[in-house]
Design goal:
96% of the residues lie in helices and 0% in strands. It has helices at residues 4-86, 88-114. The radius of gyration is 41 Å and the shape is rod-shaped.
Length: 115
Amino acid sequence: MPTTQDRIDRASRNAHDTLEAGRKVAKRAAHELDEASDEVTSTVSRTLSRAEKIARNGMDWMRDGRDRVRTEVTRAGDRTVEYIRHEPVRSVLAAAATGALVYALVQAVRGRRGR
């Protein structure tokens, strides 16, 4: 029959074994957590790099578009000035006709709203 001391020794060994198993589980969990953290960090870093590249490309595209629009507006302005220099009477008549048309449209819209 086991003595009290035998029972204490067995309980002590069981407690020690349980603590050792807990340490191993905790160590393995910490290692897996480190690996997962490294993967997340790597994924976030790649995602941020892609987002920065997309943002840079978008800004470049917008800048190029802005420059193209500016160039076209400048060209249109230059062509308009050139046309006015070569055809001043036609230009004045076209401007007057356009003004009269806009005025007539505004009056027609106002007339419909007043009804």
